[in-house]
Amino acid sequence: MRLVGLTGGIASGKSTFAEALRALGAPVIDADRLARDAVRAGSPALAAIVQEFGPGVVGPDEELDRKGMAARVFSDPSARARLEAIVHPAVRTAVAAETARLAAEGQDLAFYDVPLLYERGLDREVDCVVVVHAPPGVQVSRLRARDGLGPAEAAARLEAQLPIDEKARRADVVVSNEGDIASLRARAGPLLRALRSGLSRRLPNAPAARY
What we know:
Blueprint (H helix, E strand, L loop, with lengths): L1 E7 L5 H10 L4 E3 H8 L5 H10 L12 H9 L2 H28 L4 E5 L14 E6 L2 H12 L3 H9 L4 H7 L2 E4 L4 H6 L1 H9 L12 E2 L1
């Protein structure tokens, strides 16, 4: 089974495109969901987080206070690295189990939906990479409208990730999302057919395939 990395930038439309792929029957492994599951109440990963950061990271429901934890590590690279050292191995184990399950079902390919795929070096662990791309100005506009952020806050969110244009430069396939949601969703079918027909890693110095 081929594992296709799916990534983008904040407010680039990656999640919408992942939903379109699922609607066509393509399996999508959601890294964020697996990360949430890995730190559920009673999990070894949550116990390790509490030991590292203290009991204040857990809410009254005994679940991880995800918003509080995110705020704590957002501007503290050391704290973020300590958190990732706990969560990432647990997620990798879950991804391996899900990949094995899908392969056993006879699936020919699956998408691995990872917001920070390049930032975490996970592009080396997939067969090819699809980037959903929106220009940075469009990202900012969408992010402000979606989350009610000011210009500086929205810019800070973008700056915390690898620039979307750099992700597109590295990608094997670039899916454009400068238009409306219907246009983006319409690109899922042609991409899926191309991947099943052999579209894969681009050759060195060759341009990315574009949809």
